[in-house]
Amino acid sequence: MVTVEHKPAPAPALPAVRRRRRGLKVTRGYRVFQAVNAVVLTIVVIVTLYPFVNVVARSFSQEAYIRAGQVNLVPRGFNLSTYKLVMADDMFWANYRNTVFYTVVATAVAIVLTTCYAYVLSKKHLRGRSALVGIAVFTMFFSGGLIPNYILITSLGLKNSVWAIALPNAISVFNLLVMKAFFESMPVELEEAAAVDGLDTYRILWRIVLPLSKAMIATMVLFYAVAFWNSWFSAFLYMDQSDLFPVTVYLRNLIAGATGAGSVGAADADLQTAANIQAVTIVLTVVPILLVYPFVQRYFVSGVMLGAVKG
Amino acid sequence: MSVPGTLDPPRSTPAAGPPAPARPPVVRARRLTWRRALRRDWQLYSLALLPLLFFAVFRYLPMIGNVIAFRKFQPGGNPLGEYWVGLRYVEMFLNDSTFWNVFTNTLVLGVLTLVVCFPLPIVLALLFNELSSRRLKRFVQSVSYLPHFLSVVIIAAMVMQLLSVDGTVNQLVRVFGGEPIPFLQQPEWFRTIYVSSEAWQTVGWGTILYLAALTTIDSDLYEAARIDGASRWRQTWHVTLPGIRPTMVTLLILNIGTFMAVGFEKILLLYNPLTYPTGDVISTYLFRMGVLSNSFSYAAAIGLFEAVIGLTLVLSANLIARRAVGTSLW
After folding, report:
1. Contact at 8 Å (CB) between B292 and B298?
2. Residue extents of the structural domains in chain A
3. Of A203, A304, B21, B212, most Cβ neighbours within 10 A?
4. Which CATH class is domain A84-310?
5. Considering only alpha carbons, which residue of chain B is nearest residue A249?
């Protein structure tokens, strides 16, 4: 089906043959279509990017202009004082540090568990392998649900610790299947030769397989790290103290306060003051993702395609 | 590498030999091979121990934990409940008018999301595919993938900024001579807001699998279609679409499987008591019942109901797909 490469491929590109094949005769109708297509895709780009531009514009604007509904593409009443205000908040930085810490710990745990299990599942000769796959795949379609999970985490005493975030999400079955497909695509001769040389399974995995899987592991690290970086609900559910929140929960509390989720009749003035503070917090939260996005995007695409071969 | 497009069937027991008339020897042979497998591969099995522990504790234990749907549960008491109460909580939610309201909302939001967010990536992928400039194509794709990488909190925050009384959408409303609308406070707008933000976030990323499928279509098929005098439109209809049908069916089954679990986190962030009439869904309702009001058994009963419906949906979708078009997940 799809060629599985050890190095992540760039975004799905079509071979030259493919483009030639449909472009033999360019009719007038097709030219019209091309024009319409270009317009539609331009609109798609604008609609996708506009919210970002708008938030950035708001973050540099003065409240008065925002309140008057005059801020769209460019800041009005340009100022940096809102940035200074938000960045002076110790809690914001404490929460940011928490996000980094939770992401690192949870990703590390997830990588170890996922790699181990994916490697085991990739061994076709293993007895009981299909049962081991089934145990994982079944959880994709049926889960215990929110309440039993909540009771479990609470009973285990994991509340207010990083483990409440890291452990329950340690294996994503999708990522597991991606990695399994990758290991299955590796040539068996290498490992057989290593086994003949007297290496046991642990050493084969550590010295032969993993060094050859660096690109795959990097992709997995990205998959998990972005998921943990963006997650908020586990922390929202299991953390009671604000100095333990990740920055996503910080932002959540900011916007929940501003839209009156819970307190509908909130004073209008408060709602407006929050507008540019909200915008600044959104920008500061989203910047790391935007900075790494251009570099990591293709790893994600290739990872998803690898998973699709199996799914 | 060519891999069969099926997942391994979840088999509870390893394949036994054919049902031979001499039964005892078969069983003994199986046990021996198991012992041999353990002796040969114990290191591999040992690598599976921690992951299996994870699945047991954090995936299968909560499934068992659902027994509290049929037992009296006291916070701080036995995690599996104190004593059996039968179907009391099931009857309770079946007679709860709020439950039926959130059930309807779940179905409506689920259907709307499916109807809007399932076909859009297909259309977009076909449009991408027709772009002749390779660089432009890369750029548009990269931009359209971006929202996928954002936290749902950020998406919700941006939705609120755009839809606030002073936001861009209300500025447009004003330009066209309307009065500003507090969109997020009005139940009649909630579905539109939810579905469009969902489309904004998922449409670009959703094209990836279709684009991959498009590259696998045999170019001879287009050649043949053109020789037969098929126009571009007919080529798309008779060659391209059938070519990506397996991907469409697979994604449709998966979408139907997550149908009942409609964007719980996003709804939790976007809704408020004013928009409960249309925005409250099963998962948010059971979250409020369980975690906020401490009615754990009641909430667990609703959650179990939801999970069973979800599983039934995916199994029947899979069955129908296999019968109708010969494509299925397993």
Report:
1. no
2. 16-80, 84-310
3. B212
4. mainly alpha
5. B153
